[in-house]
Amino acid sequence: MLKMRLIYSPLYTIDLSHKFKTEKFEKTCELLIEKKVIKRDKIIEPEMPTEEDLLLAHSTKWVKKLLDMKLTPADQLTAELPVNKDIIFAHLLHCGGTMMACDIALKEGLGLHCGGGAHHAHRDYGAGFCLVNDIAIAAKKALKKNSDKKILVIDLDVHQGDGTAEIMSAEKNVFTFSMHSKDIYPPKKEKSSLDIELESKTNGSVYNSKLKEALKNIFDSFSPNLIFYNAGADVYKEDTLGDLSLSIEDIEDRDKIVFEKAKSSGLPLVLTLSGGYCADINKTVKIHFNTIKKAIEIVGR
Ligand SMILES: [Zn+2]
Q1: Is residue 16 scored above 90 in pLDDT?
Q2: What is the CATH number of domain 6-298?
Q3: Distance 125 CA to ligand 1 centre (A)
């Protein structure tokens, strides 16, 4: 188990005084080391994406704003982030992290990113704390290297992966699956290849049976050969930005369903963590910790 590498950067931690507590990544990483799931010398730092990488998923105009590190007040309002250079830098680095996780997954079967999952970032603008759509960029890059790839994005953050759906809408070789809460952010949903909308207070057993059925149908009809799993922790019942009723054990079962499907199908998997906004950050961290540990136990062998 201790051979697994984990992608993470200390630069992910920014003092935002914001609902998005960026120190959750650092705390998750430290807990994985403390509990001997990951060795400290197996932490690897991402590299920045190039302009060419960013243009795979974003418009020239948005990429220029990101690289010039100049976002207008209106851009910041839509992104719901008080943006400064450190924040833009960190978001670009998260993108590099998911790209690196994808490279590792394609070589070794499992790419673990202790970060990423900025799924609300659209082609032309940032939204919902997201500036750079790391999953879309990494997936597009994998397709650029090998056009035969058939990529499945499993987005189980409690919020719809609207940016990813928009960016990928014309990609025949990418299947976007988002299972999310119906009545919360984003107010205007995009169309994924498959959207499952959940009622407020949906419990773990309903959630996990819908997930199992959906994955079976997707695998039967689409036959992916690479999986991105966006494992948002905000499906948790105590999350301040979610409205579902999943316990920590239910979320472990959720992760297990995805990882066992990848394992039994022999498919490489790229893991990103995405949202998680518990008032007690340690609960969010515990969920992210469980996800990474389970990924290693099931897919990493
Ligand atoms: Zn979310």
Answers
A1: no
A2: 3.40.800.20
A3: 17
